[in-house]
Amino acid sequence: MLASHAGEAASYQCLLTEIMVLLQRYFARRLHGDGSEQVEDLVQETLLAIHKHRATYDTRQAFTPWLYAIARYKLIDFLRRHRRSKHLPIDDMAEFLTSEGHGMEAEIARNDLDAVLETLPERTRNLIRHVKVEGRSVAEISKTTGMSETSIRVVVHRGLKALAARFGGG
Predict the structure, then answer these.
(1) Are 132 and 156 in contact (CB under 8 A)?
(2) How far apart are CA 117 and CA 119, in angstroms?
(3) Which one of 34-38, 52-56, 97-101, 153-157 scores highest in mean pLDDT?
(4) What phi, psi does 120 have (nearest 5°)?
(5) 170 touches 93 (CB < 8 A)
(6) Under DSSP, is residue 116 helix (H, G, I), strand (E, B) or coil?
(7) Which position among 8, 59, 85, 97 has the lowest Cβ density within 10 Å, counted as fewest Cβ atoms?
């Protein structure tokens, strides 16, 4: 995205091709087998929105949260149009904190993860890493940090909520 902001058309084309795969996975997981036609429609709507609003992307911020925020809004619009009720929990924002997959997708997630978490206080950043990225149990973290399990859950929840507000996820 940075190269495309600098006017490199080939980089922009490459970016769109690579994020298409991310978006297909994102929508397919959330529509739970409602058909590839809906997934493809959502991917195309999201790619158009990214193209239309690419000038609004703040290059000082991580790209993946911006991308997923647009995708999330497109999904919500789709569900409203089709009169479906679907709860998208705050933990959905943790998706960009994990690096499922390999290659470009994992690299983007790893690069953005550090930038996103750096916006949080150190204790919150570390607890989110332990619980959401590393998958450690709250009980285990409680033993190593001396914090209560409830306190850990609250700090992680508030940290994710702050990320969601900061990066357009809710």
Answers:
(1) yes
(2) 5
(3) 153-157
(4) -105, 160
(5) yes
(6) helix
(7) 85
Q: Are residues 81 and 15 in the same domain?
A: yes
Number of domains forming the structure of the chain: 2
Residue count of the chain: 170
User: What is the tens place of the pLDDT at every residue in 89-143?
Assistant: 555 555 544 444 444 455 556 666 777 787 889 999 899 888 888 888 999 999 9
> Is there a single domain that holds both residue 112 and residue 45?
no
How does DSSP classify residue 146? -
Q: Where are the beta strands (DSSP E) in 41-151?
A: none
The encoded tokens of residue 168 equal 């357009």
Same domain for 118 and 159, yes or no, is yes
Q: What are phi and psi of 128, to 5 degrees?
A: -65, -40
Contact 12, 50 (CB under 8 A): no
Q: 152 by DSSP, 3-state: which?
A: helix
pLDDT at 167: 67
Phi, psi of 146 (to 5 degrees): 85, 0
Q: Which stretches does DSSP call E strand in the chain?
A: none
More confident residue, 125 or 12: 125
